[in-house]
Amino acid sequence: MMVDHCVLPTATLGAARERLEALGFTVAPDARHPFGTANCCVFFEDGSYLEPLAVADRAAAQAAADADNTFVLRDRLFRLHSGEEGFSALVLRTQDAAADQARFVEQGISAGPPLSFSRPMVDRDGVRGEASFRLAFAAPDSPACFFFTCERVAMPATGARLSQGHDNGALGIAKVLAVAGERQDDAAFLARLFAGAGDVQDWALGDAVFSLLAPREARRLYGIETGGEKRLRLAGIVFRVRETAVLLQRLAVAKIAHTVHEGSIVVPPAPGQGAHFIFEEPAA
Prior knowledge:
2,3-Dihydroxybiphenyl 1,2-Dioxygenase, domain 1; VOC family protein; Glyas_Bleomycin-R_OHBP_Dase; nine-stranded mixed beta sheet; seven-stranded mixed beta sheet; alpha+beta
C-alpha cells in the first residue's frame, strides 16, 4: 500500500486556497464531485496530494447521504464531531478496491458501502477531462477519522499534467501522523487496515510512513499539542522540502506563525489548513 492523498475538510475552498497559497503551495482549480462536495487539490511530484474538501451543494450532499453514500456520511460525521476544519481521512492507493472492500468486511473494519464515481478534471493549463474512481472504506471506533482505498479506474491525459512545482520547495508527503491515548487498541485496527505491515507505531506506505503516536510523543518529537482525546485521530502531515531556509523566508514574509523543532519547521493548523504541517529536508 502507498499514500494516495490526505482529506482536509474546510468550511470554504476559498479559505483553503488562500492559506495554502500563502504557505507556498500551488493549488489546482476547484473541482466538484457528483455528490455535493468539492475540492481544490495540491499535487506533488511523487503522485500524492492534499484534498481540501468543502460542501458545495448541500441539497446534493443530503441526497447522497440519504442514498447511503459512505464518503458523504463520514465527512458529515467528522464535521459534527470535530468542526468544519481538520484532517478527516487518509487515502491509500490500490489496484483493486473491490478486493479491499471484501477484506474490510471480513475483518470487521468496513465503514460502509463502496463508492464508484466519475468527475471532471482540469489541469494547470485549463485542459479538461474526466476521471473515474472506485473507493472502499474502513474506520476505527471513532468519529474523528476514517480511511479508504482509491482505485484510479480511468485518468484522462490531463492527469499526467497535474503534478506541479511549489514555491515552498515541497516534493511530497513523507509521513502522516496520528495520535491516540489508547494506542494498543487502535494499533490493532491499523494492522488490519495496512494488512499487517509494520508494528504498533510505524507502518511503511510506499515512500511515506504512517506513525501512531501518544500525545506526549507528538509533543516530544514534533513540538505539537494534540489535545487529550483518547481515540485515534489524524493530526499532522510531514512534507519533504528541498531547502527549509527557503520556506522559513517565505513564512516570515507572509507572517505565518511557525516554530522550528529539532530542525523541522512546524506550522500549526489554521482555517483552510486542518492539520499540523511539518516540513523537513530529506536525509542526506
